[in-house]
Amino acid sequence: MKKILLDTNIILDLLAKRQPFFEFAAKLFSLGDKKKIRLYTTSISIINVNYILSKILSANESREILRKFRVLVKILPCDEKIIDLGLNSHFKDFEDSIQYYIAIENKIDIIITRNLKDFKSAKIPVMTAEEFLLSF
Q1: Which of 19, 85, 86, 103 makes the best surface tag, with the fewest CB within 10 Å?
Q2: CA-CA distance, 73 to 77, in Å (whole number)?
Q3: What Å distances lie between residue 42 and 10, 77, 135, 136, CA to CA?
Q4: What CATH number does domain 3-135 carry, 3.40.50.720, 3.30.70.1350, 2.170.150.70, 3.40.50.1010?
Q5: CA gap 111, 101 in Å, rounded
Q6: Residue 20: is the preceding peptide bond cis (ω within 30°)?
Q7: What three-state secondary structure class fits 67?
Q8: Which residues, including other chains, have CB under 8 Å from residue 38's CB and lie 6 or more apart?
Q9: Cα distance between residue 70 and residue 20, in whole Å
């Protein structure tokens, strides 16, 4: 079963119902719910999603959405090793470097994001939700 790391923007596409990306995110999460793929995200993504959702909704609504969402994904931690790898990486975007090295350290098969340009030199496949669904 493929291990998929979901970037923050994919989670927000689902939870904030952002168009035109919501449908692809929903199909991706449906595959996870049906146990056809394993969905992962990072502790950093959960923190960022909560922050962004709480700007749109109340803090209580944001947390309730994340509580329900939490059953769909396994959350991978960020530690000192990951931070050091990110700080010393070629990535322009520090957060993307952290996502990437968490994926590498946890033997993730694919990173799903809408921000492909920042992962050009990745050693694992990186694609959009739409690209993944077409290839699945």
Answers
A1: 19
A2: 13
A3: 12, 6, 24, 23
A4: 3.40.50.1010
A5: 11
A6: yes
A7: helix
A8: 1, 2, 3, 4, 32, 74
A9: 23
3-class DSSP assignment, residue 108: coil
Q: Which residue has the tokens 């719910």?
A: 33
Tell me how far apart the alpha carbons of residues 90 and 86 are, in angstroms, rounded to a whole number. 8
**Is-contact 4 38, C-beta < 8 A?**
yes
d(CA 22, CA 59): 22
CB 82 within 8 A of CB 102: yes
Q: Which two tokens stand for residue 87?
A: 């700080």
- Matching residue, tokens 């690209």: 131
pTM: 0.93
**Model pLDDT for residues 21-64, shown as the tens digit of each residue:** 999 999 999 999 999 999 999 999 999 999 999 999 999 999 99
The token duo for 18 is: 């952002």
Q: Which two tokens stand for residue 94?
A: 């520090």
Cα-based angle 19, 78, 52 (whole degrees, multiple of 5): 30
How many residues would you count in the chain?
136
